[in-house]
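Long-time lurker. I teach an intro course on protein structure, and each term I like to show students one example going from raw sequence to a predicted 3D structure in token notation. This year I'd like something fresh instead of my usual example. Would anyone be willing to generate the tokens for the chain below so I can use it in lecture? Attribution to the forum is fine with me.
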Amino acid sequence: MSRNRRREGLKRRGQPYRSNQPRRQFRQRLLRWFYISIVGLVGLLIILGLALPSVLPFDGPGGNRPEAAPGTQIFDQGRGHIAPGQDHVAYNTSPPTSGPHYPTTALWGLHTIPIIEELQVHNLEHGGVLVQYNSDDPTLRDQLESLVMNQRNYPCYLVVAPYSDMDETIALTGWAALQYLDAYNEQAIIDFIDAYRNKGPERVPCDPSDANIIDMSGS
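-- Reply from a regular --
Happy to contribute to a lecture. Here you go:
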């Protein structure tokens, strides 16, 4: 029955005619808002998925960190990027093990001058292990450099550099992990390297045959 014939039939019986159009419009608006909400929720989840990994602390065990790893586990200060020279919260250790850092990294390998802390942190995020020393003893420096250079796939994910902003003689750092040594201890250094090397929150490929990653003159 057409809409006009139905309307006429209702008039003849003295019944008011009620159009279904308002109901259909309501359903259409409801569906439209439902679809908009779904699209907005999906977009929000995508944004959070991209943004949160750079600011949330790194879950060590979830990042293949051994449960009984050597050193001290340090509170994770996040992974936010900052511009060179930009102020940021103070690092909770010296040398740092996590927190705000520059978008660039220091070269893997041996350094003869201290590495800027904001670069150190980015290397750690990429799975690096930094072996830093506070000593003018050339014998100690040679020992550290020789040990690190003899590690498999050197210089990938390995750095040796001087660092004077600590009271201890040697500092070993991985992402959110720190171990101090008062003297050269070959096995302790190897154990730390094995526990944290290439196990940071970001995995970045490294080719040991690439000569550009070796830096003998400092960063």
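Some talking points for your students: Residues 57-213 form one domain. The beta strands are 72-73, 109-110, 129-133, 158-162, 170-174, 177-181.
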